[in-house]
């Protein structure tokens, strides 16, 4: 796997193929590789291309050519090699890891994003080369955690730093200076995680949904419409009550007039009867 190549025939996520050694997809007689994913034979020319790429990198490392270049030139040269061979060799390939190893010291220490990307690319190769609890794995993981912390991702930093500290406590002990140093960085990550959780909690508590202007306008229009309908209904009801009251007053007035007229008729009749009785009595007295 440390000298593997990408299958040139796979369209998406190409399969990694081991060039040397025995493999189930390698013909023991012809040494032809058949990709188990796309079931296609890999041309010998493509295998030789991958082998030549690894030899080219090995020659540069052996001759210390990078150390003889200026810093900017060396960075450009190594990035060019990495970009060129990353389509042929996977990052688990030890020769690609050597390119990254040469490139990391040349990167500006304040460029945490680039350093994080390079360390993540070489993580698989480091884990493959060393035992799971080797201090070299812990140092690499702690570096990833530190870069995550610097770019503002404390949760991911906490994850990598915890893995690194577990390895160091197991291999070197809790009082080893390297373990103590990584534990202090882990505590810083814990504090930043707690602070991030507190900020998120406070934001969720104070969060309010703002009113949309269109909804507010529609709501106001509807409110005005309802108020107009209510006012109109109240006005009609008031007028109806006043009309009913007026009809009642008119009816009461007519009844009162009828009663007064009836009383007048009774009084007139009574007076007429009294006058008639007086006249009759006078006539009877004259007769007698």
From TrEMBL:
Segments for region (Disordered): 229-288
Protein name (database record): SET domain-containing protein
Top-level taxonomic group: Eukaryota
Record field: compositional bias (Polar residues): 267-278
Residue ranges, compositional bias (Basic and acidic residues): 234-248, 255-266, 279-288
The organism of origin for this protein: Parascaris univalens
């Amino acid at each position: 796997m440390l000298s593997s190549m990408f299958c040139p025939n796979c369209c998406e996520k190409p399969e990694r193929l081991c060039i040397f050694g025995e493999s189930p997809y390698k013909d023991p007689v012809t040494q032809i590789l058949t990709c188990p994913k796309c079931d296609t034979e890999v041309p010998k020319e493509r295998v030789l291309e991958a082998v030549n790429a690894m030899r080219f990198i090995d020659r540069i490392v052996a001759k210390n050519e990078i150390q003889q270049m200026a810093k900017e030139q060396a960075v450009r040269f190594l990035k060019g090699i990495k970009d060129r061979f990353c389509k042929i060799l996977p990052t688990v390939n030890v020769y690609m890891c050597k390119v990254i190893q040469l490139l990391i010291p040349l990167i500006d220490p304040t460029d945490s994003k680039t350093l994080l990307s390079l360390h993540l690319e070489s993580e698989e190769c480091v884990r493959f080369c060393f035992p799971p609890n080797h201090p070299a794995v812990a140092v690499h993981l702690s570096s990833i955690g530190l870069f995550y912390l610097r770019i503002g991702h404390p949760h991911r930093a906490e994850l990598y730093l915890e893995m690194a500290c577990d390895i160091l406590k197991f291999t070197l002990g809790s009082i080893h200076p390297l373990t103590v140093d990584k534990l202090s960085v882990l505590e810083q990550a814990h504090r930043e995680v707690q602070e991030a959780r507190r900020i998120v909690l406070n934001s969720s508590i104070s969060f309010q949904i703002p009113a949309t202007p269109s909804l507010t306008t529609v709501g106001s229009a509807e409110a005005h419409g309802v108020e107009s309908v209510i006012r109109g209904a109240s006005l009609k009801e008031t007028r109806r009550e006043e009309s009913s009251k007026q009809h009642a007053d008119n009816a009461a007035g007519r009844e009162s007039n009828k009663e007064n007229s009836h009383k007048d008729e009774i009084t007139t009749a009574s007076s007429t009867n009294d006058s008639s009785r007086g006249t009759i009595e006078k006539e009877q007295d004259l007769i007698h």
